Amino acid sequence: MVGAGFMGSGIAQVSAQAGYQVHLMDIQTAVTDKALENIRLSLKKLDTKGLLKESSEKVLDRIYPEKDLSKASEVDWVIEAALEEEALKQAIFKELDRISKPETPLATILLPSPSPVLPSIRTDRRGCWDCISSDLCR
């Protein structure tokens, strides 16, 4: 998960709850720390209400904070949720395309429309949660 803000941390939490190991990547350690604290609080609330299949600690143990993109070379799926700045997203996807495995899908959750970011990525690698039915992401 690239980006540990509101959207990125939410996706990280839900993915960890589903049993996946998550590398939560953000260049700002303070952002990642805050995200982990918010996830911890959210999981405790869910645990208190009996809405988790396992303890909040087990879920949280599947989230690994990262300060760079290096782990993207090891994962099976990358979701980007960085700030909505085109140059930043282009730089992130350029690096992800370079370091990740060729078969690893690269997805984003939001994009300004139309966006030159995803069309610069090979069509077999791109995905967009916010516009699955749109030609923008194909």
Which SSEs are present, and which pair or pack?
Blueprint: H1 6-17, E1 22-25, H2 29-48, H3 56-60, E2 63-66, E3 78-80, H4 86-99, E4 106-108, E5 126-128
Helix pairs in contact: 1-2
What form results from the Cα inertia axes?
A: globular
Which regions contain 5 or more consecutive residues with pLDDT less than 50? 128-138
CATH superfamily assignment? NAD(P)-binding Rossmann-like Domain
CATH fold type? Rossmann fold
Summarize it.
By secondary structure, this protein is an alpha/beta fold. It is 37% helix and 12% strand.
Tell me about this structure:
With 138 residues, the protein is α/β, with parallel strands linked by helices. It is built from four helices and five strands; from the N terminus they run αβααββαββ. It has one domain: 3-Layer(aba) Sandwich (Rossmann fold), CATH 3.40.50.720. 37% of the residues lie in helices and 12% in strands. Strand 3, helix 4 (86-99) and strand 4 form a beta-alpha-beta unit. Helix 1 crosses helix 2. The longest helix has 20 residues, at 29-48.
Keywords:
138 residues, alpha/beta, Rossmann fold, 3-stranded parallel β-sheet, two-stranded parallel ribbon, 4 helices, 5 strands, 12% strand, globular
